[in-house]
Amino acid sequence: MHLALFILFAMLCVGGALNLVLQRHPINSALSLIVVMTSLAVLYLLLGAEFLAAAQVIVYSGAIMVLFVFVIMLLNAGEEDRTRGSRAAYAAGIPGVAALLGVFGYVFLSHPQQFGNARLGGFLVTTSDLSTLLFRDLLLPFEVTSVLILVAILGAVVLARKES
Amino acid sequence: MNGPVPIAYYLALAAILFCIGICAFLIKRNIITIFMSIELMLNAVNLTFVAFAHEWHQLSGQIFVFFVMVVAAAEAAVGLAIIIAVFRSRETLNVDQINLMKS
Prior knowledge:
The complex is a heterodimer. Chain A has 6 helices and 1 strand, in the order ααααβαα. Chain A has helices at about 1-20, 25-45, 50-75, 85-110, 125-135, 140-160, and one strand at about 115-120. In chain A, helix 2 (about 25-45) packs antiparallel against helix 3. Chain B contains 3 helices and 1 strand, in the order E-H-H-H. Chain B is elongated, with a radius of gyration of 18 Å. The model of chain B has no long low-confidence stretch (mean pLDDT about 90). Strand 1 of chain A pairs antiparallel with strand 1 (about 5) of chain B.
């Protein structure tokens, strides 16, 4: 069951990510990114992170992607032109990515058992566990985060304002 | 099909998603899509954090993911505001035409 669910949603993730690369229109890329993020929420549930699965759906596939779709429609973005990018980026980037993937694949998959196994319900983090840690031991970082959000909101308003 | 899944599979999936994100970052020419590929890379790293939190039975990994989500939300708001400002002045979303700082 666990393996079947993992394979199903891992395929959805990779398929959505590839679709993001292959689609020309930004709105199609945004919708496939929503597929990736929602499947990742299911994978978080399989790993026992129930709060993060809910937060992933609400914050990522909800709030952030709505913002993206909203901006795409506001700017009336059409299909992208296929211009050539920087040659240095292709010459160094594509082999670099291939090498990175090769190294990661070798490290992770040559001895798959060295990292242990994930069982359904093997490590279940409830929201109360997480909130106890967050509001008792990590209260200061949590409060500082609110300042960060405030600064980000002010910055967004100032940047997006029409100059008179 | 009922057995446990090795954590290594989750890590490999995260690596694949991260590399697809880098490829999208290099290939795409639309500034909004480039920004979306950054979000994809952040998500891949989050999956790694959750997988290792499951392996070591630690809550800190999940706390990290929580803070990454917060920062990603703030970053998306500011980044999209910058994209709107750039579009107002340059009338384009193509990164090849936003080259004012290129000599």
